Amino acid sequence: NQIAGIKEQGFNAVHLYTETFNPGYPSAGSTPGYAVAEVDKIVQRTRDEGLYLIMTIGNGAYNGSFNRQFVLDFWTLYADRYKNETHVIFEIQNEPFAWGPSYDDATLQMEADAYVLIRSKAPDTPILLMSYSVLGSGSAALSDIDKVKAK
Questions:
Q1: pLDDT at res. 29
Q2: How far apart are CA 13 and CA 131, in angstroms?
Q3: Which pLDDT score is estimated for 131?
Q4: Nearest C-alpha neighbor of 76 from the set 125, 108, 118
Q5: Whole-angstrom Cα distance, residue 131 to residue 92?
Q6: Interior CA angle at 67 toward 65 and 142, to 5°?
Q7: Among the four residues 1, 12, 57, 58, which has the most C-beta atoms within 10 Å?
């Protein structure tokens, strides 16, 4: 079991690219939930091993971009499904914008909308926002947080 091996190495968390979005969704591509059976197993195995699980949407070949409807549909399913799993942490999407602060308005709005949606389904689950590839400026990151809070 690879997850047990992670714990044996002394680590305490797994960062899972739960599913990869398709930029053509919903007219084409995979519907959120296509990996739910495998994700259920990983949630259980990390719980059994006492590890945190950070779940996110992966970008595949589309780093620095996102599909807003996929994000919302993904979290509608997964936030509700794992809301009682206290070892699970939700990361809205890995690197939805290339590459650091300041994010554009569309990305900030997606982050705000996803946060509100997740919080409505899973009020006690930690949520990670703005997974910058390159931080660059701490003040720009704080400005992005203020903009999300204002939306």
A1: 67
A2: 17
A3: 84
A4: 118
A5: 8
A6: 55
A7: 57
Q: Among 45, 22, 47, 42, which residue's Cα sits nearest to residue 32?
A: 22
Number of domains the chain contains: 1
| Strand (E) or helix (H) holding 80 | helix 68-81
Length of the chain: 151
| Token pair for 39 | 């994700």
Q: State how far the Cα of 43 lies from the Cα of 53, in Å rounded to an integer.
A: 7
Structural domain boundaries enclosing 97: 2-150
CA atoms of 115 and 71, how far apart (whole Å): 10
Report the C-alpha gap between 35 and 4 in whole angstroms: 21
Residue among 131, 3, 18, 23 nearest 70 (CA): 23
| Residue type (1 letter), 144 | D
CATH of the domain at 73: 3.20.20.80
d(CA 59, CA 65) in angstroms, rounded, equals: 7
Confidence of residue 1 (pLDDT cuts 50, 70, 90): confident
pTM of the model as a whole: 0.92
